[in-house]
């Protein structure tokens, strides 16, 4: 019975290929510096495009050591409902609409 038993494998952890005679891609280590003092080190293939920034485990944006600094993005303020309303109507038009709606409400109350 033991000679007919099936051998089990762990999923995704082992390869059946042999590493003998294989040439691995040339690699180099890339260092990223986080503003909170963390240093991130990743191996990249020599011909790979290395990103200028990497998200640190703390959530900050770590920048490539000895690399170009990315241009700061323009900070856009968040538009509110009032901002969007003012894009469609002027203050004078809003005053007129307010008076019309108040007149309708007063008429419905019997005032």
Task: Describe the fold and architecture.
This protein is an alpha+beta fold. It has 2 domains: 27-70, Rubrerythrin, domain 2 (Single Sheet), CATH 2.20.28.270; 78-111. It is 24% helix and 19% strand. It contains 2 helices and 4 strands. The protein has a 4-stranded antiparallel sheet with strand order 2-1-4-3, with no helix packed on it. The longest helix is centred in the last third of the chain and has 19 residues, at 91-109.
Largest sheet: 4 strands, antiparallel
**Do you know the CATH architecture of the largest domain?**
Single Sheet
Strand content: 15-25%
Run of helices and strands: EEEEHH
Relative helix content? 10-25%
**How would you describe the shape?**
elongated
Tally the beta strands. 4
Summed up, the helix count is 2
* Integer count of domains: 2
**Rg, please?**
32 Å
Summary of the model, kept short:
With 111 residues, this protein is of the alpha+beta class. Helices cover 24% and strands 19% of the residues.
Question: What are the defining features of this structure?
Answer:
111 residues, alpha+beta, Rubrerythrin, domain 2, 2 domains, 2 helices, elongated
